[in-house]
Amino acid sequence: MLHVSKLLPRGQHLAPVLLQRAAEVVLDWDTRQKSRFQATDSQGRTLGVFLPRGSVVRGGDVLVAEDGTLVRVVAAPQAVLRITPCPQHGTPFDLVRAAYHLGNRHVPIELTPAYLQIEPDHVLADMLRAMHLAVQEQQAAFEPESGAYGDHAASHGHGHSHSHPGSPPNGSAHTHGPAHEHEHEHGHGHAPHGHR
Predict the structure, then answer these.
(1) Closest Cα to residue 93, out of 124, 61, 131, 130?
(2) Which residue ranges does the record annotate as region Disordered (predicted)?
(3) Per CATH, the architecture of 78-140 is what?
């Protein structure tokens, strides 16, 4: 048995050739959210995985065995419900509403710009259809959000600037006179203020 106690998120800092040569292990979400489990890799070896408590394994991550063996994780296709806006009269905002209601029920949700995915649940499917969303059963990899402070959150490799052009380099606050207007390009029009 290969003993694994280290995880490299997305195989960071590994040369591509090492990732290509690595064995694979296919795991569903139920297994990947555990910190201790056994699995069999593509070379038939048994893996005994003992990660720090609270660890979540994602597709594309690399498990590192105590002897240095690398095993790339593949998210297994599994039954999911894919939620999309109604093609006739829905809008992308409908997904925001759906995510809000699902989040209130503490349901694991995979978020994308085009759709949401959750694990099968006929009660939730009925609720979503009543909200005029399209709900389809599919077999797909499931990678739900892990919360603002968990898992790989905030490790996507780039920072965000929140200062305005021309603001002081130290990020100190700035004020505007009453006649000052911000100009922002959003790529869409704004309705007049009197429009409801």
Answers:
(1) 131
(2) 142-196
(3) 2-Layer Sandwich (3.30)
Report the distance separating Cα 45 and Cα 18, nearest Å. 18
Q: What is the pTM for the complete model shown?
A: 0.71
Per DSSP, the three-state class of 50 is strand
DSSP, collapsed to helix, strand or coil, labels residue 63 as strand
- Cα-only R_g, the chain: 22
pLDDT in tens, 118-146: 999 999 999 999 999 999 999 999 999 98
Looking at domain 2-75, its CATH class is mainly beta
User: In the chain, count of helices (H) and strands (E)?
Assistant: 4, 10
Contact in structure between 79 and 118 (CB atoms under 8 Å): no
Task: Enumerate the domain spans of the chain.
Answer: 2-75, 78-140
